[in-house]
Amino acid sequence: MTGFAQARVEREGAAVRINLRSVNHRFLDLHLRMPDGFEVFESRIRQAVRDRIRRGHLDVNVYHETSGTAGIEVNREVAAGYMKAVEQLRGEFGIKTEPDLIALFRLPGVVAAPGDAGELHSEEVQEKLGAQIDECLQQALQRLETMRRAEGESLTREMHGILGRISSRTKEIEGLLVLVRPAFARRLAERLQDLLSGVQIDPARLAQEAALLAERSDVSEELARLHSHVEQFQKLLSGAGETGKKLDFLLQEMQREANTLLSKTPGVEAEGLAITTLALEIKSDIEKLREQALNIE
Questions:
Q1: 27: containing domain
Q2: Do residues 7 and 81 both lie within one domain?
Q3: Considering the entire predicted model, what is its pTM?
């Protein structure tokens, strides 16, 4: 389910900011980006997300911000190493351009803020920063859940509407099936008359053959199962807990019934064409449900 949320928690002149962005995905696909040195917090962040989010492609971006320059530290040894390498290259290749100090600050390891890799070796710093990250992450997750819940309520209403259409079209097909058997007899009689060129046909035999053809094309079981699947789908939407994978399974079964319905639909006059049209509309609605079901955990 799509959504965006962010939170910011500031303590002792430094702030942790976390942005969450989610889009549809069949499983939980978590992508985590954070500052250098924060790898020690990766497992706890991933676990906190898994505890509250079950499905979706989720981008988690963690930022560490300091106020002013008080917390900025320059690793002079690393900076000196870069400058020495620059001077050697200038002398070797005859480069007269002066080094860019701004660019130097962007090089890895030159500038560090409290909580960066250098200080995170301290268990005390790890504990404090970890608690700050936990609080910020929980706030962001709560806001994301609120947004996803509102979208979910709208999505549920839309899916109930689609299920209603499937149920209505299934009932229409059931009504048309009553007209199919006589249509079989008419079509069979016409074909036999053409083939036999006016030879008298035994009405009993004709009725028997028409009944056999109708039986082979009987879709009453498929329609009954479609009704059952629609009812189960509606119950799952109205229930609580993880239902996404159950809905996926139901949709596979519904798609199978719709395909069988189409394969067995008789090409008999207007009734058969009407049944085919309704079955195609049911397949289209099932596909819409499949797309929406990706949003549901």
A1: 3-71+116-149
A2: no
A3: 0.58
